[in-house]
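ARCHIVE CARD
CATEGORY: sequence design from structure
SOURCE FIELD: tokenized fold
FIELD CONTENT:
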């Protein structure tokens, strides 16, 4: 099978992470997180995000986002997020179903929220006829491949906290954002005032599993129970936590995200000047959004797998990942040029 440009979820598991899982697969360990592998991974995460971080491992991104929102809200609350956010579009209504909250969305041309965009949705505080805004959720990097700077995150955090709200970050691709900015993981998230982070590894070399990182003790207090109710408590947790330890050890996360970003930049460079190909958004992580002739899309999909992002506007998404190689990019571009003529 040719290299997929559909999603970083299509990639395999990095060898060092697979080895870590095999090493954890020795002997018996107490279940539900009371094991040495999980203890070691939590210590490593606290080295990165701060000693006051509480860490909760879960199965997947939808679970991480949904349980995170649940921990910060009551059923009469509202969550404000971008209209493009995974939380809004790709969770099959899980956050609303599990939390009872309303998701209120803002149109964001570049995928990024700002206090100015949020302000019109902040109303009805104290009015029994309105849902009460409680959480702002941002995605790093965004669904459109753009990246929040630390100052942008901090501005939203300050806005939220000044209004007795929390800031959640969907960090499914936080590694790609940090690499783009030349920063550490905490520098683009929790150091900027993020209260709860959904820290993703699946899109960056892991097999499965995410971590909810909580920076507020009042939120963490009930997280164990929300995680269990949300069906996100792994019994053999060592096979999730051992992956995170390997990902963070010696900055493997950075190495893998660096390759994904570099391959995206190579693809961007190689399609410059190709006729009928228009780049829609800046390439700041590992995603390219491209407008191309509708009749050419299916021809290219016969050779390479990728998704149509907006059928009406004829926009497609091409994604690279930790295992994408230069030869994959060059073959893709060669085929693209043959098709568009």
């Amino acid at each position: 099978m040719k290299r997929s440009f559909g999603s970083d979820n299509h990639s395999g598991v990095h060898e060092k992470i697979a080895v870590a899982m095999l090493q954890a697969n020795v002997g018996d360990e107490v279940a539900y997180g009371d094991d040495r592998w999980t203890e070691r991974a939590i210590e490593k995460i606290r080295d990165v995000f701060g000693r006051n971080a509480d860490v909760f491992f879960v199965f997947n991104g939808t679970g991480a986002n949904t349980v995170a929102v649940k921990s910060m809200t009551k059923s009469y609350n509202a969550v404000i997020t971008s209209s493009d956010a995974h939380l809004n579009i790709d969770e099959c209504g899980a956050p609303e179903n599990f939390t009872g909250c309303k998701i209120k969305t803002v149109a964001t041309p570049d995928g990024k929220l700002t206090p100015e965009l949020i302000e019109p949705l902040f109303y009805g505080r104290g009015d029994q006829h309105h849902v009460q805004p409680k959480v702002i959720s941002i995605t790093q990097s965004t669904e459109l491949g753009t990246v929040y700077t630390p100052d942008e995150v901090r501005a939203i955090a300050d806005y939220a906290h000044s209004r007795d709200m929390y800031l959640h970050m969907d960090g499914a691709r936080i590694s790609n954002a940090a690499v783009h900015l030349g920063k550490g993981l905490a520098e683009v998230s929790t150091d900027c005032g993020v209260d709860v982070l959904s820290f993703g590894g699946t899109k960056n070399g892991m097999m499965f599993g995410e971590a909810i990182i909580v920076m507020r003790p009042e939120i963490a207090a009930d997280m164990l129970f929300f995680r269990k109710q949300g069906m996100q408590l792994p019994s053999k947790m060592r096979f999730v936590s051992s992956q995170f330890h390997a990902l963070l050890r010696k900055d493997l996360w950075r190495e893998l995200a660096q390759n994904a970003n570099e391959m995206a930049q190579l693809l961007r460079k190689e399609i410059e000047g190709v006729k009928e190909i228009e780049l829609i958004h800046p390439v700041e992580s590992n995603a390219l959004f491209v407008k191309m002739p509708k009749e050419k899309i299916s021809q290219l999909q016969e050779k390479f797998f990728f998704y149509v992002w907006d059928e009406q506007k004829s926009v497609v998404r091409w994604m690279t990942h930790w295992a994408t190689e230069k030869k994959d990019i060059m073959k893709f571009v060669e085929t693209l040029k043959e098709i568009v003529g």
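CARD ANNOTATION: The chain has two domains: 14-250, 252-340. DSSP finds 14 helices and eleven strands in the chain.
SHELF: design records, drawer C
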